[in-house]
Design a protein that fits this description.
- The chain is an alpha/beta fold.
- The protein has one domain (13-267): Rossmann fold (3-Layer(aba) Sandwich), CATH 3.40.50.
- The chain is 29% helix and 27% strand.
- The chain has helices at residues 52-63, 68-80, 95-103, 116-122, 158-164, 182-188, 225-233, 237-240, 243-251; strands spanning 13-15, 18-20, 26-28, 35-36, 85-89, 108-113, 130-133, 146-152, 165-176, 208-222, 254-267.
- The strands form two sheets. Strands 4-7-6-5-8-9-11-10 form an eight-stranded mixed sheet, sandwiched between helices. Strands 1-2-3 form a three-stranded antiparallel sheet, with no helix packed on it.
- The protein is globular.
- The protein starts with 12 loop residues before the first strand and ends with a strand.
- The chain binds S-adenosylmethionine.
- The site of S-adenosylmethionine has 19 residues, from helix 3.
């Protein structure tokens, strides 16, 4: 186990139903099976991260299989890298994490999110994985402990990512291209904001470099009103767009482009 104490950074060991460090900081295993490694002094609000409504909407939408091709390709890319230990940063309710875990049965898998509501649900998807409530800004894992990091539709702390990566390891990032959900955005806004889908590449720290990129694009027919409502609720469009436009989106079926890029960014430092 490569977990470290979020308070004093010394190794954590299993002690009964808890994790404890040499300095007697102790973290109980929750009934659902995850560990809460987010000390109250590291929280910037009472319930940080995605709330229950967003988590539920994302869970229904993803379990509906609408983004299944995205998860399949993500898992294939992870498998090709054959990591011994991997971590999904900002795992949400665990849909993608579960599929990575299934494709890497021999590896040691970890997943974290700052939202307790998300991790509470995620950990039920695969009890073999190590599920953590934790912040991506202070990841409770040792330096150079991971061969693969996954970051899926999530923000990322790049210096923490680099700290966690073993030499030769890498970050598998999945995020939207500028064309993602274009028809939905056209329905919601008079002027669709252009989105620079290479912006994150400027954040890659020295000692890491982009080794591979690819995009996956397909058209999705949103026949079901619940799926349309959930897609809105799981994205910032759910609160950014006007109520009138949102209602119009939910009212009638439409086709929307799903367009995603995958980047594999490797740690080249020894
Ligand atoms: C758009 S969701 C993506 C969730 C999941 N990867 C997926 O695609 O289904 C972004 C996630 O990042 C989490 N998050 C935001 N800030 C975070 C932080 N500082 N540390 C850890 N997780 C964070 C949110 O709680 C949320 O679950």
């Amino acid at each position: 186990m490569s977990l470290i104490c979020p308070i004093c950074q010394t190794p954590l060991e299993l002690s009964g139903n808890a994790l404890a460090c040499a300095n007697r900081h102790s973290f109980d295993r929750a009934r659902q099976g995850y560990y809460n490694l987010l000390p109250v002094q590291h929280k910037n609000s009472r319930d940080p991260g995605d709330n229950q409504a967003m988590v539920e909407a994302r869970r229904r939408f993803l379990d509906g299989g609408h983004y299944a091709p995205l998860a399949k390709r993500l898992a294939e890319l992870a498998t090709e890298r054959t990591p011994a230990r991997w971590l999904d940063i900002g795992c949400g309710e665990g849909y993608y994490t579960e599929q990575i875990g299934r494709s890497l049965p021999q590896a040691e898998g970890y997943a974290l999110d700052i939202s307790r509501e998300a991790v509470k649900r995620a950990c039920k998807r695969d009890p073999q994985l190590n599920w953590l409530v934790a912040s991506m800004a202070r990841v409770p894992l040792a330096d150079a402990s991971c061969n693969l990091l996954a970051s899926v539709f999530s923000p990322l702390d790049w210096s923490e990512a680099k700290r966690l990566l073993a030499p030769g390891g890498g970050l598998l990032r999945m995020g939207p291209t500028r064309g993602h959900l274009m028809q939905l955005r056209q329905k919601l806004y008079d002027e669709v904001r252009d989105y620079d889908d290479e912006k994150h590449l400027a954040l890659i720290p020295p000692g890491m470099h982009l080794a591979h990129s690819e995009t996956l694009e397909f058209s999705l027919h949103l026949a079901d009103a619940q799926a349309r409502a959930d897609l809105l609720a799981m994205t910032p469009h759910g609160w950014r767009a006007s109520a009138e436009r949102r209602e119009a989106v939910i009212a009638a079926p439409f086709d929307v482009t799903v367009s995603i890029r995958y980047d594999w960014i490797v740690n080249t430092q020894e």
